[in-house]
Amino acid sequence: MHDPTKLRELARKSRERAQSSTNPAAAQQLRRWAVELADAADELEWNAHDPGDPEIARLLFEVKGEIT
What we know:
The protein has about 70 residues and is mostly helical. The chain has one domain (about 5-65). It has helices at about 5-20, 25-45, 55-65. The N and C termini lie close together (about 10 Å).
């Protein structure tokens, strides 16, 4: 996923699901994912000039498998 907008949308959905979750552990995990997704979107925007950056590739790989 190379679109920060999509990552931010996933972060928003994660926050919404965390707020409506009745399971505290699930809510906590969803909040973590929301932060990680927002951070990944920030990284993509900040480093848009260098898409080959290994750190960006790592973030994309980690996020891609977390939430669908």
